[in-house]
Amino acid sequence: MPRLPTRCGLSRGEYAPFAADLQLREGIEGRRAALLSGLRLRLVVEDAPEGLENLAANLGEALARLGLAAATGPCEPGAWLLRAQPDLAWEQGPFGPVCRLTVAGQLEPCDGGRVAAVLNLQGKELVGTHTQGRPRALRELNERLTVERLLPLIGEL
To answer: How would you write the pLDDT of the chain (157 residues) with one tens digit per residue?
Structure first.
């Protein structure tokens, strides 16, 4: 059986293609941020479930932190419309009712045209459960709908 060397000489060096990839990514992120900060965006949260008062405000704040200034009001030519459609589903968990929120939507130009991006928010951050019934589970979900929890979910938009 061949013997393996007892000492390996590994050196830590910069891999040139990796450094180039990092520079390319930084450039793309910079162009993306510049593009997003120039967009005029209208946010519409359609039929928000009762009890989730934080959803529209926190979604707008999360978009603003990502560089998108979202406003409400009429959609005008040259602006973009983000139409969010929340859906609240209930199920019985082992320790009580569980509510799961998903938010689907589309980013489209106000003056017509193709959909530019699809919004699909879902995950463990958008789940509420409580042993004392549906109202408490819904309250827990509403408390979890913070800007900090929404940011990673919409960061891919």
So the answer is: 555 555 555 555 666 677 788 888 888 877 877 776 777 888 888 888 888 878 888 888 888 888 777 777 788 888 888 889 999 999 998 888 999 999 998 888 888 878 888 888 888 888 998 889 899 999 999 888 889 988 888 876 5
Residues 6+ apart with CB under 8 A from 46: 83, 84, 85, 86
* Residue found by looking up tokens 């800007």 in the block: 147
Which of 39, 46, 109 lies closest to 75 in space, CA to CA? 109
